[in-house]
Amino acid sequence: MSTEEDEAIAALGVLSDPLRRKLYRHVAASAGEVGRDDAAQAAGVSRSLAAFHLDKLVAAGLLAVSFRRLSDRTGPGAGRPAKMYRRADGEHTVSLPPRSYDTAGRLLADVVERAGLDRELQAAAKAAGAADPDAKGDLVEVLGARGYLPFWDGDTLRLANCPFHALADEFRALICGMNLALVEGMASEEWSASVDPCPGGCCVSLRSINKSH
């Protein structure tokens, strides 16, 4: 077993604790950085207990940390900068026994791109989205279940995570076009989807045409 696989198993093992899963999901789904007080309130636990588990998630490489002041005060009486948490950039994937779906995905993406089959891929993606058995349900819930981590930014529904991140980095135009078509297929006529990247997240955003959230 490789060191990388060992690290992935260890990281995912940290999430066996229900409270840590709850804290991780809250931070991962947040549009910005999350402080200890906010995380504790979301999880319904004390600040000290939330801090303990948040730092365990940091040690496992699942969350990243930064420090900043939460007020405009400066000088000796301003206090220490607050510890803030956000979803870490890395990915953790475990397959037992090991599989190489990522290699197959890259090879297929390369062939499709070289052959100029973008439109055919987008048509297939839109059809797959429309055929999704959950596509007629609440779109926010559907996207959440598919790993997009949707959140409202005013009247725009943004997606904090790209489920195809690794492929999108290498085949951006191809994968973003496919992703847009897939989301359009899942969305009803009440939604308008467009390529409007969320920093650190998905390239697609949506707006509700007929009603506000």
From TrEMBL:
InterPro entries: ArsR-like_HTH, WH-like_DNA-bd_sf, WH_DNA-bd_sf. It comes from the Bacteria. Pfam families: HTH_20. This is Predicted transcriptional regulator, ArsR family. It comes from Actinacidiphila bryophytorum.
